Structure to design on (846 residues):
């Protein structure tokens, strides 16, 4: 539209606008005719005669429109060439489809070129296909993809568009794909979306969305990528999005019109989501809408799966390497989990060599990245100067506001190409997404360029390293100082966790031996306690010293036992912690916690004799009011194992009574909250399913369904998600023909995304198996095996051998049911190799 206006201005002007002189003449002519001036420098930017072209403001467009005889920019848009009444429906649709295809292909090509990736190398994201399939097949009209910058939203959508433009499903449909910057070029911000699309795409004056027959038996899919990039101040973005929400509300009854927007998490959570929530007509038809707060790292895109990681390795590492190809299987499990986050994968690829395969967690990868791309990069001194200036301006995390670029320029010549190495260093920090720029309007409505760290984990680790250096190392006093200095900061917990992690990894016993004696704001904080238990997953020399010291004090043992029970690492490292605590256990609570946990671990490791030995010590121990939540939970789960492994009819019949007893004690427990009972139920279900006790699992579901405060559980996203997951799991066990709808498939992937962030291996295994079955129902054997492989891989790495046998047997039964007997027998044979005559009974009970 702007290009058309420029063409008509040149017609009125009587010549092409090609140089400074013509811009000066045009500026004077506009002033003479309209009584207001557009500067020649503004005209040069509009016509692309300056290095950084500027998008014209509405007032500038109004003046240019008045110059050619129109009342305003809106009046010009109303009169543009091509406006006509809807005539032959087929012709109008074909015209729009041809226009949309050309624009969508151009948009995709622009995104690919900007990313430096060719289409065949783009990582195909199953989650985007599933989300689009769910949207198209549902009664919902709109959805959104929310993720931090650099998460692959744009490339994922561009890939989907290019693969589906000519797909049979959409052969007669229209896919109209734009980026935020394209919207800014063509959209008048006072115009309704339906009017704009009718004129801009269908080339008619009439509103095409008022003609339902035009959309019969086909789809109109409108996609806007990078909604937050329409303008730097978010003013136009917010206005456009409000019009999109009105459009969704107005046409929510149409099953043919679908809308998708993508944006950064921080922008969505800060303002845009409320626009949807506050519009009842739109919110009821917005798929996957969450009212929970979004921060800068939150996303509704799943982490990368096994196949997507391997595709990334093939496209960006193996293609360039003459040596042996890198396989996902070569990575240790912790590193694989870490780089499943797209940002971390990007860092990993940028620093990859054979030594990086030894890395494990977030801090390892970020530390290596900092070492390579900041401390030992080409302009290391200048990099460190800029980074340290940023940290100092942000008061080392006590003020997390972005830094003005002008302040940085006053200190270092980052804007002068020939002013030393600072320009190159700054460009390097931007190129590797260590820093990022954003243009915003300040309180005086002036545009200001702000600089900030691109990722919170990177910033947090840099701040932690500074704090440690300033203190001369980590000491107990440093934890107290950080707790005090960062009292009102979101960083407080993350910095304390980082300090503990560094002290633990460096075997700094003196710094953390009395951690449980620190102020309650540290030693009783649940997030910190959970993090500390996670550190014990790494079997360092310090572990035994630390736990032995903690176990000398009853308050320290309570600190360990009441905090958490690490099911994910029960069979790899947590059982060692239980053995250490058991050695000095004196109370019933301590003994039940350790014995029940160790018994379950022995069963999972296929050690029947070990299971029975620990069970023998548990027989005479009964839970009571002195037991904490986790002791009650683990004792109940142990009863499930003991009844099934011994195949004792009386004990099997008593499981319901044991659950009821635990229910009463949990509700009486002073440390429990009103949702604790639902946590208990949902932790119990997968263990009943393990032993194929669907009747017992359904009984728990019934307890949840009829619970007087179930409505409180529904308000908790994670509990509701787990409840839905296991309801589907029970149905799939009872019915081989059970098939997920596209909407259920989309919801399940969202559930697994949440579980991936918090780990929850047992729940993730159940989710991946369900996803696998659903894809097999659709005859997608490759995706079926990919998801099932992921489930088995988690079991293997977590040493959940009993769970692994259960899933292998279930896989074989499923393949049999689908007439794939050869493959079924292969998995059945493999499952048999995991046991010997001594533990054959365990094989038979799952």
């Amino acid at each position: 539209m702007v290009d058309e206006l420029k063409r008509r201005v040149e017609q009125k002007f009587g010549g092409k606008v090609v140089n400074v002189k013509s811009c000066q003449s045009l500026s004077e002519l506009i002033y003479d005719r309209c009584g207001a001036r557009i500067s020649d420098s503004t005209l040069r930017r509009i016509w692309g005669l300056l290095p950084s072209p500027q998008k014209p403001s509405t007032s500038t467009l109004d003046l240019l429109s008045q110059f050619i005889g129109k009342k305003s920019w809106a009046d010009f848009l109303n009169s543009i060439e091509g406006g006509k009444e809807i005539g032959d429906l087929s012709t109008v649709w074909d015209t729009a489809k041809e226009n949309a295809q050309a624009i969508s292909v151009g948009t995709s090509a622009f995104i690919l070129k900007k990313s430096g990736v060719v289409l065949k190398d783009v990582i195909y994201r199953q989650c985007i296909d599933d989300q689009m399939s769910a949207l198209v097949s549902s009664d919902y009209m709109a959805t959104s993809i929310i993720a931090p910058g650099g998460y692959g939203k744009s490339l994922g959508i561009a890939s989907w568009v290019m693969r589906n433009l000519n797909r049979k499903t959409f052969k007669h449909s229209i896919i109209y794909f734009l980026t935020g910057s394209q919207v800014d070029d063509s959209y008048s911000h006072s115009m309704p979306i339906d009017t704009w699309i009718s004129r801009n795409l269908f080339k008619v004056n009439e509103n095409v969305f008022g003609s339902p027959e035009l959309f019969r038996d086909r789809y109109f899919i409108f996609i806007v990528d990078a909604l937050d990039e329409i303008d730097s101040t978010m003013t136009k973005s917010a206005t456009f999005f409000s019009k999109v929400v009105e459009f969704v509300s107005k046409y929510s009854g149409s099953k043919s019109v679908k809308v998708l927007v993508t944006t950064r998490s921080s922008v969505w959570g800060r303002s845009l989501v409320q626009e949807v929530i506050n519009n009842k007509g739109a919110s009821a038809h917005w798929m996957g809408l969450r009212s929970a707060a979004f921060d800068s790292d939150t996303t509704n895109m799943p982490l990368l799966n096994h196949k997507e990681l391997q595709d990334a390795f093939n496209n960006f590492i193996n293609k360039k390497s003459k040596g042996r190809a890198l396989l996902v299987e070569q990575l240790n499990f912790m590193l694989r989990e870490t780089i499943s986050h797209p940002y971390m994968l990007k860092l990993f690829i940028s620093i990859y060599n054979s030594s990086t395969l030894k890395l494990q967690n977030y801090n390892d990868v970020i530390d290596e990245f900092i070492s390579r791309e900041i401390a030992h990069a080409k302009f290391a001194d200048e990099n460190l100067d800029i980074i340290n200036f940023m940290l100092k301006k942000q008061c080392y995390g006590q003020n997390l506001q972005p830094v003005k670029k002008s302040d940085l320029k006053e200190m270092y010549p980052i804007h002068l190409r020939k002013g030393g190495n600072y320009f190159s260093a700054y460009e390097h920090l931007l190129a590797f997404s260590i820093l990022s720029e954003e243009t915003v309007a300040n309180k005086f409505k002036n545009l200001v360029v702000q600089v900030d760290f691109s990722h919170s984990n990177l910033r947090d680790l840099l701040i932690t390293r500074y704090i440690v250096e300033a203190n001369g190392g980590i000491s107990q006093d440093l934890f107290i100082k950080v707790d005090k200095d960062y009292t009102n900061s979101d960083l407080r917990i993350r910095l304390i966790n980082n300090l503990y992690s560094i002290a633990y990894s460096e075997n700094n016993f003196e710094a953390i031996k009395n951690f449980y004696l620190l102020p309650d704001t540290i030693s009783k904080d649940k997030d910190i306690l959970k993090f500390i238990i996670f550190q014990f997953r790494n079997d360092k020399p310090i572990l035994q010293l630390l736990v032995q010291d903690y176990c000398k004090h009853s308050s320290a043992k309570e600190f360990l036992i009441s905090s958490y029970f690490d099911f994910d690492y029960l069979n790899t490292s947590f059982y060692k912690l239980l053995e250490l605590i058991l050695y000095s256990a004196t109370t019933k609570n301590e003994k039940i916690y350790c014995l029940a946990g160790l018994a379950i671990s022995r069963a999972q490791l296929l050690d029947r004799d070990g299971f029975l030995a620990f069970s023998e010590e548990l027989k005479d121990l009964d839970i009571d009011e002195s037991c904490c939540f986790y002791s009650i939970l683990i004792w109940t789960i142990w009863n499930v194992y003991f009844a099934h492994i011994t195949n004792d009819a009386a004990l099997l019949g008593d499981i319901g009574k044991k659950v009821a007893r635990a229910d009463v004690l949990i509700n009486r427990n002073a440390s429990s909250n009103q949702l604790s009972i639902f946590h208990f139920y949902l932790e119990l279900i997968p263990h009943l399913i393990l032993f194929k006790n669907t009747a017992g699992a359904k009984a728990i579901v019934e307890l949840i369904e009829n619970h007087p405060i179930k409505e409180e559980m529904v308000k908790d996203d994670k509990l509701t998600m787990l409840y839905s997951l296991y309801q589907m799991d029970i149905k799939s066990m009872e019915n081989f023909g059970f098939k997920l709808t596209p909407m259920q498939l989309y919801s399940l992937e969202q559930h697994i995304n949440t579980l991936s962030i918090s780990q929850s291996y047992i729940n993730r295994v159940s989710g991946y198996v369900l996803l696998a079955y659903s894809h097999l129902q659709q005859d997608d054997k490759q995706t079926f095996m990919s998801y099932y492989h992921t489930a088995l891989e988690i079991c293997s790495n977590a040493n959940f051998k009993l769970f692994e046998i259960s899933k292998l047997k279930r896989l074989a039964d499923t393949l049999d049911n689908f007439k794939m007997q050869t493959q079924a027998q292969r998995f059945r044979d493999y499952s048999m190799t995991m046991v010997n005559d001594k533990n054959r009974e365990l094989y038979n009970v799952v």
